[in-house]
C-alpha cells in the first residue's frame, strides 16, 4: 500500500500534520514551526537531545520551558506513544549525521509513514561522503521532499543523486517579530558588527586585521563583536572595538540594532543566520562566498558585498565602501531589508506548506 493510499496517511483532504525533529530548541526552527501552526498546519517539534551543546552554551543560549506543542524524547518509540497522531504526521528528518535520524527514517519506511529531510551543505567533508550518498539514495526513493538550506545544499544533494523534482529551497527562518525597518538616518560613526563564535573558521582573525587597517584610515569606524570563543582575547583592548559577551538569542536584536553593517567573513559556513538577522534589521551584508547565505547578496540592486577570497585587503576594501560613503549604508541597507523578506518565518512556512501539498499531490496522482 502506498503512502498516499494508506488511510492513516491520507492528508489530501485532511489538515496537514507535521512532526519536526531536531537536536534542541533554536529560535529559527521555533519561529518556523510557530508560523506553520499560524498557517493552519498541525505542527509539533520533537527534541532528541537533553540540552544545548557546548558551542550553543558558549553563545549564551539557555533552556526555556517547552511550549505545549514541543516535546523532548530519547527515542522514536517513546515519541510514538506520546505524540498525538504520531503515525499520521509527516516527519521532518533533520540530518544524516545522527543515529536518531536514521532510526526515524527506518521507522517511517517500515510503518509507511511519510517523511521529508531538512539538510544543509556539508561543506565538502570527505569523511561523510559515503554516508551522504546513502542518505541521498534513501531520500530519493522514500522521502516526499528534501528541503535544502540554500542553493549549495541543493546542488550537493542533486549531485548525490536526489531527483531535482524532490528538492526544494529553504532557509533557517527569521521570526517576523525580529524584523525592523532601517532607521533612515545617518550616524556620526559607521559601526560594523560580527555576531557568532570567535573562532578561526569564522574568519575573525582576518576581520580584526582588516578593521585595524580600516580604523586607521577612517577613525569614525567602530567594530561591534558579539560572541565568545578561542579568538576572543585577540579583540580585548583593541581601539574602537566594542566586545560584547554572549547573550540569549532574544537579546541579539537590541544589540545588533546599534550597528550599521553586518559582517560574516567565514572560511566555511553552511549558511550563516547572523548575516540574515542583520539584513532583517536593514543592515548591508558583507560575507565571503563560502558563507551559504551570501547567495542572497546582490549587486543590482546592491544590498552588500560578497568577497571572492578571504584576505585582509579584500575585506578591508568591502568595509571601506561603507566607511567612505554613509549614504551607501542607508541605500544598501534598505535593499537588504527587502531581500530578507524571503527568510521571514511566515514566508518560509507558506513556501514549505505549498511544497508539502505539492509533493503529496504528486504521490497521489
Task: Write structural notes for this entry.
The chain is an alpha/beta fold and 365 residues long. The protein has helices at 27-38, 54-58, 76-80, 99-111, 129-142, 151-159, 204-217, 232-235, 252-256, 273-280, 312-323, 326-339, 345-364; strands spanning 17-22, 42-47, 70-72, 90-93, 115-120, 146-149, 167-170, 190-195, 221-226, 241-244, 261-264, 285-288, 304-307. The protein contains 13 helices and 13 strands. β9 (221-226), α8 (232-235) and β10 form a beta-alpha-beta unit. The chain is elongated. The model is unreliable at 1-13 (pLDDT under 50).
Question: What's the arrangement of secondary structure elements?
Answer:
Elements: E1 17-22, H1 27-38, E2 42-47, H2 54-58, E3 70-72, H3 76-80, E4 90-93, H4 99-111, E5 115-120, H5 129-142, E6 146-149, H6 151-159, E7 167-170, E8 190-195, H7 204-217, E9 221-226, H8 232-235, E10 241-244, H9 252-256, E11 261-264, H10 273-280, E12 285-288, E13 304-307, H11 312-323, H12 326-339, H13 345-364
Amino acid at each position: 500500500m502506498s503512502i498516499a493510499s494508506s488511510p492513516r496517511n491520507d492528508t489530501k483532504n485532511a489538515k496537514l500534520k507535521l512532526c519536526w525533529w531536531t537536536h534542541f530548541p533554536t529560535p529559527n526552527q521555533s519561529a518556523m514551526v510557530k508560523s506553520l501552526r499560524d498557517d493552519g498546519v498541525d505542527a509539533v517539534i520533537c527534541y532528541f537531545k537533553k540540552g544545548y551543546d557546548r558551542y550553543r552554551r558558549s553563545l549564551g543560549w539557555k533552556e526555556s520551558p517547552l511550549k505545549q506543542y514541543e516535546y523532548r524524547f530519547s527515542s522514536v518509540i517513546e515519541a510514538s506513544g506520546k505524540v498525538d497522531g504520531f503515525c499520521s504526521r509527516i516527519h521532518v528528518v533533520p540530518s544524516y549525521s545522527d543515529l536518531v535520524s536514521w532510526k526515524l527514517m527506518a521507522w517511517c519506511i517500515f510503518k509507511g509513514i511519510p517523511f521529508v529531510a531538512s539538510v544543509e551543505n556539508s561543506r565538502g567533508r570527505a569523511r561523510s561522503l559515503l554516508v551522504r550518498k546513502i542518505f541521498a539514495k534513501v531520500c530519493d526513493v522514500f522521502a516526499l521532499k528534501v528541503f535544502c538550506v540554500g542553493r549549495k545544499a541543493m546542488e550537493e544533494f542533486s549531485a548525490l543523486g536526489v531527483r531535482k523534482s524532490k528538492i526544494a529551497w529553504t532557509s533557517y527562518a527569521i521570526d517576523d517579530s525580529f524584523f525592523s525597518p532601517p532607521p533612515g538616518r545617518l550616524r556620526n560613526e559607521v559601526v560594523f558588527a560580527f555576531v557568532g563564535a570567535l573562532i578561526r573558521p569564522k574568519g575573525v582573525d582576518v576581520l580584526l586585521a582588516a578593521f585595524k587597517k580600516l580604523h586607521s584610515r577612517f577613525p569614525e569606524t567602530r567594530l561591534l563583536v558579539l560572541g565568545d570563543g578561542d579568538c576572543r582575547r585577540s579583540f580585548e583592548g583593541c581601539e574602537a572595538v566594542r566586545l560584547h559577551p554572549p547573550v540569549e538569542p532574544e537579546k541579539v536584536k537590541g544589540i545588533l540594532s546599534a550597528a550599521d553593517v553586518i559582517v560574516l567573513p567565514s572560511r566555511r559556513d553552511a549558511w550563516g543566520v547572523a548575516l540574515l538577522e542583520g539584513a532583517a534589521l536593514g543592515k548591508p551584508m558583507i560575507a565571503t562566498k563560502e558563507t551559504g547565505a551570501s547567495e542572497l547578496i546582490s549587486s543590482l540592486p546592491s544590498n552588500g558585498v560578497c568577497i571572492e577570497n578571504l584576505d585582509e585587503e579584500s575585506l578591508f576594501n568591502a568595509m571601506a565602501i561603507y566607511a567612505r560613503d554613509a549614504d551607501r549604508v542607508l541605500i544598501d541597507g534598505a535593499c537588504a531589508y527587502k531581500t530578507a523578506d524571503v527568510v521571514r518565518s511566515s514566508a518560509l512556512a507558506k513556501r514549505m506548506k505549498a511544497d508539502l501539498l505539492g509533493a503529496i499531490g504528486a504521490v497521489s496522482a
